[in-house]
Amino acid sequence: MGCRKAAGSVAVCAVVVIAGCGGPAPLGAVERGGSARALSVAVADPDPSDPPTITEIPVVVGDEVTAALDAGPALPAADELDAQVEVVPDVLAATPPTVSALADGTPMELDTLDAEDRAAGPTVESDTTFQTVAVTWPSDAQVAPELQARVRGQDGEWSRWFPLEDDGAAPDPGSPDALRETRAGTDAIHVGDASAVQVATVGPADESLSVDGVSLTLIGSQAPTAGLHASAQSAVHRPGGPSVVSDIASGPIVRQAAARPAFVTRAQWGAAAPTCALDSAPALRGAVVHHTAGGNSYSTQAQAMQQIRNDQAYHMGTRGWCDLGYNFVVDKWGTLYEGRAGSMDSAVVGVHASGFNTGFVGVSFLGNYDTVGLPAAALETAGRVIGWRLGAYGVNPNGTGTFTISVAGTKLPIGSQVSLPLVMGHKDVSSTACPGRYVYPSAGQAGTNLMPSIRAIAAANLGPALNPPPVGALDVVTQVAHGSVIVAGWAFDDDAATIPIHVYVDGAIAVGTTTGRERPDITAIFGKPGAGYSVTIPVSDGTREVCAYAINVPAGANALLGCKTVAVLSNLQPTGVLDAVTAAQGSISAVGWAFDEDTQESIPLHLYVDGKIAAGVTTGGARPDVEAATGRAGAGFSFDVAASIGTHNACVYAINVPAGLNVLLGCRTVTLANAQPFGFLDVVSASGGTITAAGWAIDHDAASIPVHVYVDGAIVGQVTTGAARPDVEAAFGRADAGYTMSFRAAPGARQVCVYAINVPTGLNTHLGCMSVRV
Predict the structure, then answer these.
(1) Domain with 496 in it
(2) Backbone φ, ψ for residue 458 (5° rounding)
(3) CATH of the domain at 415
(4) How many domains are contained in the chain?
(5) What is the mean pLDDT of each run of 10 residues along the chain (774 residues)?
(6) Is residue 235 part of a domain?
(7) pTM for this structure?
(8) Most buried pick, 197, 254, 511, 542, via CB within 10 A?
């Protein structure tokens, strides 16, 4: 879509569209978030006799502007904007939406300024009737335009100016809608049958229109004459005075039978087929309440359906989405309409609240409830359908949840955590007035808060629970041979002893297997024997995404067990685990297992201590656990190297055979404490003026240690351990721990004391004292 921009001006485009869809998208894609089957939604070819028509008319802020507005009401400021005067259309024969005749491409300039520098354009005449007005702009724009519009009805009267505000809706990243060329935009404002429109900025032109590529969209269709009836039972309400909820009921709500709500099918309201295979979440987590922000003046169900068809045409033909963004629509008489295809039976992902589309059902009131009160029948229907859908997934409508924001929106910053009710208003997650002050007023705003009533009605009308999906995990995705990857994990379903497991590689199914392998850990935790699965699949070289799904038995939502990325190499890298690194007195030990599928022989391993190679070993140790899991015997290894006192970082690498990248199995930090010497002074004897002291001493930090001898408090010498002591060797494993020292001493009574000296430093150990007469 292109827009022309006059020299020195800001470009806007006026676009008139009809409901129309591109070619069909293929079905059969994996449902995002947990199911391995696509939602069954037929995608029809467009009718070649009624192709979509989009006409673009540039609208620019001109270089030269006049100082006064054209005839008509003065432009209101932003805080003065009110809902438009609506024109009730005649009831016509049913036809698809049609295009307004603005086809000559003449630029429409916003060329008239008022005293506040707000710019207005000329009247744009359409030679066909339209009922819906909206504005769109590029989805990557940093700011939204601030525009207002007014329309001329069939009676020739102009409405008041009404705002065209950002609707805060965008597809979830990665969804089928997001993969298309989409645009940001306003709500689709229903204005009744109109033949002309005028557009203006809300504030000064250079501030209100600071983004290029803005388009004005007009949509026209005709209403059917025949009344339609909701499925299951009649849900058609005749025009009249629906009772409006003015405050929240204070009494208890009596729980009703949770019957499936009556609804108007898509075929009955004339929906166009989706243009792609729609996504379905594995479960619903909550609901978001909206209003369409269009007019409330529709007086028949036929006119209500006309609004919904126009909204769908806007969402598909202008915004670029696959289908109507809302899952359900409720009119003012309480009639329920199925919106996005499949929403009555599946957790279909809509486009209604940025970041809160997947897992949240979007229910929208048809009309603008920022200006009028909500009828009681509409309140009841909204609560009932929310209860029906959330009950199927065990969600408490009165509950709250904590959410981490991962999608950019207009209110909540990415990365923030917020606590929200599970049944929330659109304004909880987006900077919008939706669903209007008479459903959910902002803090300090006049209005009626009906959200507690919606939750209470939903809680009283919970739908029957669906067959819950299986549970489990994808534990391992590892290359085990050239062109082969092993996929293993566990899963169970309370409805069956074993269940199917489907494995996908890069989005395409690769193999099916079943649970049945013993997983004692899972049995101990869940009491489910035979929950394990393991399958080896052929995979070509390259980086591959492998996903495993547990298939629901007998039917229902499947469970995504997980996805892992694996690099499949022609030369396989070793695999293994460093189980433990321990510090003993004077040494570091490391144990684990490793093997390389390129060889059936043992492989080398290198131990690095503090960044320097300390030892090399090969596998060969018995590891029955590894053999049972992988079929590889003799995969164990162990290191034992000398180390000094202090903290050390020990890392083990498995060496690739015959060549290639080596694999770091792991690193550990260990600390060797300074060991205290210990020992004994066995004997002190005197003969002919010579004293002899003997005993033994050990310090695990050294092979031999000094021993100091004191007589009457003064040192007389030292000796080093090294004498054979078979008795000490038998007890402590140190053969040469003995010491003997002889020295001259003056006659008389003497006290002899002996100390073992700490190596390398630290507290010395007193081995004992004895008295002797020389």
Answers:
(1) 471-568
(2) -60, -45
(3) 3.40.80.10
(4) 5
(5) 33 36 25 26 30 40 46 50 34 34 52 74 82 88 85 91 88 88 90 89 74 83 53 32 35 46 93 90 89 90 92 92 97 96 91 91 96 95 95 87 75 81 93 93 91 95 81 89 88 93 89 94 91 93 89 81 85 90 89 92 96 96 93 95 91 91 94 90 94 95 94 96 96 94 94 94 93 94
(6) no
(7) 0.55
(8) 197
